[in-house]
Design brief:
Layout (H helix, E strand, L loop, with lengths): L10 H16 L8 E3 L9 E9 L2 E7 L7 E4 L7 H13 L3 H4 L2 E8 L5 E7 L5 H14 L2 E6 L2 E5 L3 E8 L2 E8 L8 H15 L5 E5 L7 H4 L6 E4 L3 H13 L5 E4 L3 H8 L18 E6 L8 H8 L3 E6 L2 H11 L3 E9 L9 E8 L7
Parallel strand pairs: 1-16, 6-7, 11-12, 11-14, 12-13, 14-15
Antiparallel strand pairs: 2-3, 2-5, 3-4, 5-6, 7-8, 9-10, 15-17, 16-17
Length: 367
């Protein structure tokens, strides 16, 4: 986000422009009018990362405009970030005046939750020794947070290296471990709206769900209540470990999680090659009725699109509406859009999150 673009008075206009852009991108596919889910105007972002910038004897939180690493935007607070981050910023700044904590500190990262937990990562251009650990322990206790210290070849944890989010979807509570350094949804309030929409769009099913790009299980946990069983895949080791912990913490036993990329799973389902990581899993025993995908900005590759075509229903969450439209163009001869939505995860930017439910045209047997 360009900091100069932050202006809550323009929010409604910016959101209307995104809605029109999504409407135009999906118009060739006769999409219904998108459901629109707004963001809070302030304090919506649960993650923030700042460089430290020195002016004389003082150091400040700093951000930079895209493409400009030499002209800092100095900050005392950050109104788009959670209230917890804003409360911690001045207290942490006071603490780095301590030479042990502040010496060669160059970057600070905050990770918070809607439920109030916080993790701070401090990044250094020097080795961290016992005196740093003692000072960091006092600071963590004082702030009521966990701390991670990072320098070249070092990663020291004070407390835990994750936060735990608590979310309620359709009357059921879920806890999510969100590890330091792993991807999590930045806008917690809009993430909740996405989860509710996906839960409703999937509906109650008597068949099985295949999920690609499952991350830490953000969607996997609530969607598992809507189907008989779930096979979920993710390639990031950190996210897989978090997802496995989340399954255990929530007592969910109808999900099998496999560390495979979408491309690898496509090869396995097509019988191109076997994978040791699928040992003990009988793919033929699944009765998949829906595939759920939340791909990176590049969207689904051609082969994964062709795999998705075999499913009666495709539930697709996208962080890039252009690649979403490209994927739908590949699928439109067999599937139609029955629902679509705009989730404003990133206010005051051109970025948007969107969702579509694609259903197979007519009655066609899933091959």
């Amino acid at each position: 986000m360009s900091y100069s673009a932050f202006d809550p008075s323009t929010y409604s206009t910016q959101l209307a422009e995104k809605q029109q852009r999504l409407r135009e991108l999906l118009a060739p596919f006769n999409a219904p009018e998108p459901e629109v889910f707004e963001s809070p105007r302030l304090n919506y972002r649960l993650r923030a990362e700042f460089r430290l910038w020195r002016e004389g004897e003082d150091r400040h939180y700093a951000m930079f405009a895209p493409g400009d690493k030499h002209t800092p935007i100095l900050l005392e607070d950050f109104p788009i970030a959670s209230q917890r981050i804003n409360d911690l910023m001045p207290r942490l700044k006071a603490a780095w005046a301590d030479s042990v904590l502040g010496f060669k500190l160059f970057q600070v990262e905050f990770l918070t939750t809607l439920s109030g937990e916080a993790l701070i990562t401090l990044c250094y251009h020097r080795p961290l020794k016992d005196d740093w650990q003692a000072a960091a322990k006092r600071l963590a206790d004082d702030l009521g947070v966990s701390l991670v210290g990072r320098s070249k070849g070092q990663r020291l944890v004070i407390g835990q290296d994750f936060v735990t989010e608590e979310l309620s979807i359709a009357g059921q509570s879920y806890s999510y471990r969100q590890p330091e350094g792993a991807f999590t949804q930045p806008n917690g309030t809009v993430n909740l709206k996405m989860l509710h929409w996906a839960y409703d769009a999937l509906g109650q099913r008597e068949d099985d769900l295949l999920e690609l790009y499952c991350g830490n299980g953000n969607f996997t946990l609530p969607l598992s209540r809507r189907v008989r069983q779930v096979l979920a895949t993710e390639i990031s080791k950190t996210s897989v470990n978090a997802a496995l912990a989340n399954l255990d913490d929530n007592g969910i036993d109808n999900i099998r999680l496999v560390r495979l990329s979408a491309e690898e799973l496509t090869q396995a389902l097509n019988g191109v090659r076997p994978f040791r990581r699928l040992e003990g899993i009988d793919l033929a025993a699944y009765q998949f009725g829906t595939i759920f995908v939340d791909p990176p900005r590049a969207g689904m590759d051609v082969d994964t699109c062709e795999l998705a075509r075999r499913f009666p229903r495709i539930l697709y969450i996208s962080c890039n509406p252009e690649t979403l439209a490209q994927n739908i163009a590949q699928l439109q001869d067999t599937h139609r859009i029955s629902r679509c939505a705009l989730f404003d995860q990133f206010p005051y930017t051109h970025h948007m999150e969107s969702g579509v439910l694609l259903e197979r045209r007519g009655e066609m047997f899933m091959g």
